[in-house]
Amino acid sequence: MSQAPCTVEEHRARVLAGVRPLDAVDVALLDALGLALTEDVVAGVSLPGFDNSAMDGYAVRGADVEQTPVTLPVVGEIGAGQATVREIAPGEAAKIMTGAPIPAGADTVVPYEWTDRGAAEVRIEQTPEPAQHVRPAGDDVRAGDKILEAGTVLGPRQVGLLASVGRATVRARPRPRVAIVSTGSELREPGAELGEDSIYDGNSYLLAAAVQRAGATPVRVGIVPDEPGAFLTTLREHLPEVDLVVTSGGVSQGDFDVVKEALRHEGVWFGPVAMQPGKPQGFGVLDGVPVVTLPGNSVSSYISFEVFVLPAIRTLLGKDPVARPLLDARLTKGMTSPQGRRQFMRGEVGYDAQGRYVVPVGGPGSHLIGALSDANALIVVPEEVTHLGQGDRVQVLVLDTDF
């Protein structure tokens, strides 16, 4: 008796039930790019930390330049990080560079452009506003302010802010290490010679790149032949050093489906999911490590990664939402879809005066990796829909974007 297919949501829930966020660790600042904070960050210093100049010019007392033109003696020069003049008296000026501290007694900066740029004395031609061109201490951030919240995914701007307040490390969930295992005696490494019945192993490179794009660290195990014992031995060798395992191939109904043969007695679920492509799927937890088994055809494998593995990786990372959002688009030409299966059709999303549109790319075949390479989105057709016409509204997953 054949097994009834489960839904996409049911299988995703099965996978996510076996995955939990990794424990937080202290991470060096640059290594934390793309990771989710597990702490609120409070500024230990103010930004700026002292009143400083916003321009190259002269630090003066505003009262001394209310009437211009006026000539003042220059008592020294203040560079950023070289505060040789710490105070000026009434009627004096000090040359000052952008970012340098305002000396005591001064409250305004006159830019070079309003002066004759004198060295011993300076003639000021234009009257500044009170406190003009002065950045007050704490104008941006005050010590004690909460500057980032737990759950924030760190981008370049956040890393810059953390460095600016003196943080060298942060508490964050580390990058998961994800083992990628390709199965198939017909597979060869790129660059090797092909036999009459052999093919290059594109899947492990495809999946490793997808893992890296998702923010995790790929551990490409390499090719395992169609021998259940060898597969299981290889898998167990890598389990202690990884947080997740992704396999491709060997999960269908064939006589040489090595993954299914090796893991069916290890508590791993195998069965059909009501989707196209990607019907044969599997998931289990082996020695405490989640194992997601994907079909072997390239398109099926990649789409299954997007639908099931990407949410698992984001869960390990503590990122929310875990699944890529569905967006609305206008279909540019008609297409059909099988009854009872959710189809993930390759597409190319673009924008025109009417908004977002999507063009179907290639056919439905699960081996058409050339068309997959041309696509930047997946058109998601519900199980009950069998026909869509030009101009119909559809939902799309836009690939290779942050969310």
TrEMBL record:
Molecular function via GO: metal ion binding; molybdopterin molybdotransferase activity
GO biological process: Mo-molybdopterin cofactor biosynthetic process
Entry superkingdom: Bacteria
Enzyme Commission number(s) of this protein: 2.10.1.1
Function statement: Catalyzes the insertion of molybdate into adenylated molybdopterin with the concomitant release of AMP.
Family: Belongs to the MoeA family.
Protein name: Molybdopterin molybdenumtransferase
The species this protein was found in: Nocardioides anomalus
